[in-house]
Design brief:
By secondary structure, the chain is of the alpha+beta class. Helices cover about 20% and strands about 30% of the residues.
Amino acid sequence: MTSHLHALGFDANDPVGLARFWAGVLDWETVEDPYGAVALAPNDDTGFRLRFLPSRERKTVANRTHFDLTSRSLDDQRRTVERVLEFGGRHIDIGQLPDEEHVVLADPEGNEFCVIEPGNNFLADCGFIGALASDGSQAAGYFWSRALGWPLVWDQDEETAIRSPHGGPKITWGGPPVAPKTGKNRLHFDLAPPADGDRRAEIDRLVSLGATRVDIGQAESDPGKSGQGEGDWAVMADPDGNEFCVLPSR
């Protein structure tokens, strides 16, 4: 048994407000979170939640991971952009070229994402969230394929992508050059250990695949506590140094 991708976690200065934005854009519902965050649950095959965790740190650098939202037509793309702006998002310039057809936007706290043009073959069979696009190495793609038990659906020129056997978004890594990591990521994966498995053994398995245990300065009461007991959170990092959490057993 392998860990399950339970959620994509966002560090947020205003968790309730940021959740409200993404609920409006994605048309997802707020749900009770057993770990104390503000959480949204998908109404499609996405397969993981969004969790919004309080943070006093302000966003200062580009995220390593962002959503690629899909479009069925140019009108559909335009409507998505309008909805983003209506809920408090904005256009941003990250150096995209004038002839590029995707639209680059940011949520109210500056987290970047794209609305992809219709006809994108790579995302053709994906839902509204087509991909979690990541700045990362081939080693990170291989690690997450093994960690989650998701097959590689792209592995070429050091670019990799994985996808759950049940569908949902692809997770992609763009290969070199990978920008240096600066500080703690604002987005991270939350993994639920196997329901009928040994959590300690699962943490050891992730280490054997290339993960490391990390200390992000979390306090004892923080969701992210890096103990190894059954009631603790284990904070780890993948081969590119991206933090992720293994949730307490439930």
